[in-house]
Fold this protein.
Amino acid sequence: MRTVRHLVAIAAALAAGLASDLAAAPAWADLKLCNRMSYVVDAAIAVDADGATATRGWFRLDPAQCRTVLQGDMPAGRLLLHARTPAFYGAPPAQAGTDRLCVSSGDFTIAAARDCRAGQTPAPFTEIKPSPGEDGSLVAYLAEDSEYDDEQARRAGIQRVLVMGGYDAAPIDGVDGPKTQGALAAFLKAQGLPPEAANAPDFFAVMMKAVQAPSARGLTWCNDTPYKIMAAVGIDDGRTVATRGWYSVEAGSCLHPDIPGQPRQIYSFAEAVDGSGRTVTVGSKPLNWGGPRALCTRERKFEIAEHGDCAARGLASTGFAATDIAPGGGKTLRFALPR
């Protein structure tokens, strides 16, 4: 945190030209971020003060977790936030933002965050207006439309990962009940964990690791190639077919897409991409795994429920493969290089 404080002070001093001006500027109390979403979140913060903009990330926040991300003794200015979720969630809530500032893939501190250099990419940041907390700090909440409180956010986050692991904890609503308790008990038993493990500080890390391993429940994608794989799932609930993507499956890892309830049919499509995000070709053919069922997708993250005339709506028509999964059972699709 001291690095951020010093970074902001230096950037602002360069813009203002006089360190004495900074000393006379109003100062913030400590800034704390609190996650009231049903997703684990990686957050980046930005300070725009005296014409200089600095960014720092990433701060991982589990549902219902708070973290201090900035400390006091720095000049007042605009505070901005960018939040992302781990790739295994697929298509989480999108963030809009009026400022596009530079971030990096790993932990980063960027002093001049409006002009991206090699290894940095622009991301949307939203201005935040923190409110005073009980401990004297300023607090900003990350929230969904569901407006969970802390207890509900943690429970909904657990429900979401359980569903991704093939356990029937739907709906994801943050409400405790027999289904959620039964699904959680089954997960803990399968992982050889005691009941109190669900209250441990690292429980979401434990769950996320388990979700990215082959499972006897639900659909599992396993990437046996040296490339990143981007995958999409189609879910037929008997009334409509909804497609969702893209899920990023790293080389040598597995991932479970979130499939709530007991759908009538599940479809899958996946393709290998290179470091620039372009489809990998093998012998002039794209390296992908699909089938004959044409469903709509788009280039960026998506969730689509209508699949008539994809092209006329600016969407791609993609061939998905049907995947047979018995009720309560599981299916693992392994993606490998052709022989």
In short: The chain is about 15% helix and 35% strand. The CA atoms of residues 91 and 120 lie 22 Å apart. The longest helix spans residues 2-16. The first strand starts at residue 31 and ends at 36.
